[in-house]
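Lecture 7, part B: from sequences to assemblies.

Below are the input chains for today's worked example.
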Amino acid sequence: MEDKQWLMNQLEKLFEESRDYKQKALLQATKELLQEQEKRREQLQGELDGTLWSPGNWNK
Amino acid sequence: MKTLIILSHPTVDESSSQQFLMHSLPEDENITVHVLEQTYPDGVIDVEKEQALLLEYDRVLFQFPFYWYSSPPLLKKWQDEVLTDHFAFGYRGNKLNGKEFGLVLVIGLPEKEYQTGGQEGFSISELTKPYQAMARKTGMTYLKPLTIFQFPYLTEKEKMSLLVDYQQYVSLKHPVSLKRKEAWILDQLKNTSRETLPTEGTLFILEAVSEAIEDNRMELDELSLHIDNYDV
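Predicted structure of the full complex, as structure tokens:
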């Protein structure tokens, strides 16, 4: 988690310091992509936990 | 993949949204912006040249301000004259078959007005039916449109998101997925100029970011695999 936050902060710093508009847009999109991946990871992890605890699967 | 953007706007030089979009595109030989009003200021369209141009591309986009639920007049004229029988439809009219077709619409009102009960009363999907029918008749795959509502009111952050969405709309393979967006971002990060970034530590950070995106993908795929195994 700390690593992830560190990376986000570094990206934010690059975004602030970039002197090119398109590059800034790319760096912003990169941050959003990492956030989206994290969201999907949480969703899938939740789904997997739910599946493991579902009585329907206990016989398998 | 080669993309042809057919842009129609009566005064494209004075349109901040169209200028923004044009400047958003990367220097890429696979992307062509074709401004009808600049190519044909007298309104006389070279049909043969236009048809030959279409053949060279895999994805064709119409980009225009949404006037009275349709395009500016020159684009309609272009459709009437270029998309002819035996070329775009009818007997042996299969020249556009298998291509992709999409709309980039700049719209003056907010999105929420384009629904039943909204000020406009109809959705963009309903109002763009003639373009969907055109794609269907000519054998092109109709892509989800890129709709830009109230461009002048976008924040700087929203404009930057639009810039990337537009670049991806023009170049990302269909159907768009998170996986394809990841590959696109990785490629862009690899090629982005180091000259406009601080000298110290930049390379290390960009590499760490790329690695994180790849690691996350592996984790997502692994989780999906576990879920699929239970999903009998």
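Note for the exam: Chain B has a mean pLDDT of 96. Keep this in mind when comparing with the next example.
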